[in-house]
Each structure stands twice: as structure tokens, then as C-alpha cells.
Amino acid sequence: MFLSRSFRHSAIYVRTDRGIDFPQALKGCRIGVPDFQQTAGIWVRGMLGDEYGVTSRDVRWVVGGLEQAGREARVPYRLPNDIHIEPIGADQTLASLLDAGDIDAVIAPKPPSCFGRNERVRRLFPDFRSDEEAWFTRTGLFPPMHMLGIRRTLVEQHPWLPVNVYAAFRKSRDLALAELAVTDTLRVMHPWLTSEFERVKALMGADYWRYGMKENRLDLETLQRYARSDGLIQEEVPLERLFATSTFDGFNF
After folding, report:
1. Are 117 and 222 members of one domain?
2. Model's pTM, two decimal places?
């Protein structure tokens, strides 16, 4: 089950005075990322590699907090020598560096504070929704951002726990989807929520926020391939080793 998913074409912000008018122009640039192992960045780098031939080795990565100085990696990691990473100063932020023109671009899940204020900062994909919809149509990928983990010791004590938690979240998701379809009293402050909901289903299918290992095999295998290309993992792990066996496909809910 995935508590958050998001397309990430919208997550690339570039300087307009660097000639970055198309994705391939990112080669040779200095690009900021809050954490090289952040999931949003992995999806963006993988997409740039698959779609435009811009690999992690074609860029110089600048790592640090987007708006908060002094941010460090959550988990230590070691990358191949041909992936170039440099930390920002202890009193610097990626947003301020992009604003000043000290870096060429930023990949971040939320807009940097200079976006919308500095006319020299824009999205690489201004019409990102169209690009994301086209990418989904080509690939079938809807990037998962987060999963829920259960401690192995708890599962050993309570073997029924994973499948019951999974079943509860499936019911919760189904209730949330049903709420989006309500037309008499909107559940979200969006005047065209119902038509948006129908548009998404027409493009992505009724089960667009999919749970289950079978339904997400392509997404998970692609994410592992991207992480391996980035040097963040040494080898891809069979999905059957990542999830509790009681949650495998074939169980009835």
C-alpha cells in the first residue's frame, strides 16, 4: 500500500538564463537536490535518463536543504566515483543558491521560495500536467513515494498483523475514493472535483491509486532499477523478499 504517490515532472526548477530550454540541456549543469536518496529525486533522475538520455553521471549534484540550512542525509550512503556530489555550505539553502544563480537547477517535491518571485526561475516542464499524463500513457508508471513498514519482530509475534493492516488500508482507500465521487456535497474544496475525478479515471483507470504487489510490480521494479543506476543499491531485491507473505496476491479481503 502506498500512502503517497506523485508524478514529478513538476519538480524540476531551472534558471531561465542558462539556456535550459529542453531536458538534454541539463547535461553538465549543477543541480540541487535536498537528499540524493530522496524518492522524488530518484524518480526524476530515472525519468530523465529513460526519456531524454540525461544520466546521473552527466550532472554535478549539489546537496543540502531546500529552505532549511544545515540539512544532512538521513542515512549514510556511498556512491560510485563517477557520480559527482558536493554539499552546500552550512548556512546555505538550495533555494537561495538558485535565486542567486549559483546553481543551474533544483529538483524538489515542493517549489523553492524563489519560484514565482524571481522571473529567472521557472519549471523545466511548464505544462507539466500534459507531460505527466503523456508519460503515464507511455509507461504506465504512477510513482509511489511512501510505504508503511511494520517491524519484523512484531510480525514474528503477530503473523496476522500485516494482512490485517493491509486490509484496513484498502478499506480506507476505497472509502476515500467513494468520497471523491460524491456530487451533492463536495468533500474537498475544489469546485470541479467530480469532473477531475472522472478525468483521472478515464486516463489511468478506476484503480489508479493501486495497492497490491502484482498491481505495482512495474512501479517497484522501475524504482529499484533507478536506485541501482544511481548507485544507491548494489542489486535489485526480488519483490517477494520485500513484503510479508500474508499480503501477497491471492488473499481475499
Report:
1. no
2. 0.93
